[in-house]
Amino acid sequence: MKRRRFLSKAGLAATGAAATTVVGCTQQKKEDAGQAPAAHTGKTYQWKMVTTWPPNLPVMQTGAERFAKRVGEATDGRIKIQVFAAGELVPALSVFDAVSEGTVECGNGAAYYWAGKVPAAQWFAAVPFGFNAQGINSWFYSGGGLELWEEIYAPFNIVPRPQGNTGVQMGGWFRKEMNTIADYKGLKMRIPGLGGKVVSKAGGTVVLLPGGEIFTSLERGVIDATEWVGPMHDLRMGFYKAAKYYYYPGWHEPGTCLEVMFNKKAYDALPKELQSILDAVAAEVNLWSLCEFEAGNGAALQTLISDHGVNLVRFPEPLLKDLRKLATETLEEEADKDPASRKVHEAYKKFKAQVGVWGSVSENPYYNVIADKYALKK
Ligand code: CA
User: Fold this and answer.
1) Tens digits of per-residue pLDDT, 2-61?
2) Residues within 5 Å of ion ligand 1 by Cβ?
3) How far is the CA of 141 from the centre of ligand 1 (A)?
4) Phi/psi class of residue 108: alpha, beta or left (left: φ > 0; alpha: ψ in -120 to 50)?
5) Given this chain, do its domains 7-14+43-165+257-294 and 172-254+310-372 carry the same CATH topology?
6) Contact 40/96 with Cβ under 8 angstroms?
7) 295-324 pLDDT tens trace
8) Which CATH code for domain 172-254+310-372?
9) Rounded distance from Cα 31 to ligand 1 centre (Å)
10) What would the 3-class secondary structure string for 48-106 be?
11) DSSP E strands, 202-321
12) Residue 29, burial from CB neighbour count under 10 angstroms (0-12, 13-18, 19+)
C-alpha cells in the first residue's frame, strides 16, 4: 500500500496539475478492477520444475504446467516456475534426486517411482486394493497421511504435496481371457509398483518398459498384457489395436496420487504467505486433476466401445478375491523389509479401516444401486 501511494503521488507530480484528476481516476479504476500495478515490494523467485511425464501428457504434464501457471497468477508473478518435461533437463527417474540435491526447486511425479530409494514412498501413490481418491485425500488432509509423507521425505530435503489423482484406473489390456488366478502363470505383463509385485507372486513375469515401447511390445506379443491409466490415456496409446480384452477394475491402482515436491531449503526460504499459496494451489490442482479424469474417462470409454469395438470385461469375482489375498501378503512382506514402510503401512491400514466402515454404508451401496442406470451403449 505504501508503495502504491508513493507511485500515485509520483504520477501526480510528473503529469502536472492539468492531468491530475484524470490520472488519479484511471489509477483508482484500475485498482477497483483488480488491475493495479504490483503493490508488493517482495522478492521474486525464479524456479525450475522437472517432471517424470512426457511433453503434453494430458492431466499429468498439463497438470504440472497448470500448477506453475496458477502459482504465477496467485503470487502476482512473485514465483515464476519454468516447467521441464521428462528428459528436457533431467531424465524422468532422476527427478527425485534433482529436487533432493537442490539442482531444481521443485519436481512432479508419483511417489512409487522412488520405491528403489524410498520403499515407504509407494504407499503415498497407490496400494493394490487400497484407498480410492476420496480415501487417500482424506488420509492426507484429515488423517495424518501428509504429515507422515513429510516425515518420510524429510531426510531427502523434500517437502511433498498431493497434486493430482487418476481415480480408479483400468485393469489393463490383455491378449487372452483372464478366468482364474492360474491364468497369471507365465503371463508377461507391463505393470509397475506394488501391483507388479502381486502379479509376480501370482506367477506372472513383470516387464518394465518405457512408455514409448509398450504399444509395439504388446502388438508383437513380446508382452501379453499391459496396464496404463484409464480410458482417456489408453485410447491415446492405441492399445485397442494390439489387445482384444480390456479388463476392469484397476485393483492395482484404485486412486493413484500424483505429487509435487519442493526442495526443503527453497520452500523454507519463502515468506509464509508464498508457502501458503504453493500449498493451496497444489490442493486446487489435486481437485482439478481428479475432475479431468472423471470427465474424460467416461467419454473415452464410450468411444473405445462404440468406435473401436473394444471388448470390455470385468475380472471374475473369484480372481479378484485371489489377487486381493496375494496383495495382502505382498504388502506385509514389503512392510517387513523396512521399518519406515512398516510404520506407513500400519498407519495406512488403520485409517483405511476407519473410512472403510463409513464407505460400506455410504459410497458402496449407493454405487451399487445406481450402477445399472449407466450401462454403456454398444
Ligand atoms: Ca497405471
Assistant:
1) 444 433 333 333 333 333 333 333 344 444 445 544 455 589 999 999 999 999 999 999
2) 169, 253
3) 24
4) beta
5) yes
6) no
7) 999 999 999 999 999 999 999 999 999 999
8) 3.40.190.10
9) 47
10) EEEECCCCCCCCCHHHHHHHHHHHHHHCCCCEEEEEECCCCCCCHHHHHHHHHHCCCCE
11) 205-206, 225-226, 245-248, 257-263, 311-314
12) exposed
Q: In which residue are the cell numbers 507388479 written? A: 196
CA of 280 relative to ligand 1 center, distance in Å? 27
Q: Give the pLDDT score at 211.
A: 81
Q: What percentage of the chain carries pLDDT values higher than 90? A: 83
Grid coordinates of 323? 489377487
Phi, psi (5° rounding) for residue 94? Answer: -105, 5
Distance 270 CA to ligand 1 centre (A): 35
* pTM exceeds 0.85 for this model: yes
| Span 111-142, pLDDT tens digits | 999 999 999 999 999 999 999 999 999 999 99
Question: For the domain 7-14+43-165+257-294, what is the CATH code?
Answer: 3.40.190.170
Name the residue ranges covered by the structural domains of the chain.
7-14+43-165+257-294, 172-254+310-372
**CA 342 / ligand 1 centre spacing (Å):** 24
Per-residue pLDDT, averaged over 355-361, amounts to: 90
What does the block give as the cell for 229?
Answer: 491409466
CA 42 to chain centre: 31
Residue 130 alpha carbon to ligand 1 centre in Å = 14
Backbone phi, then psi, for 189, in 5-degree steps?
Answer: -130, 140
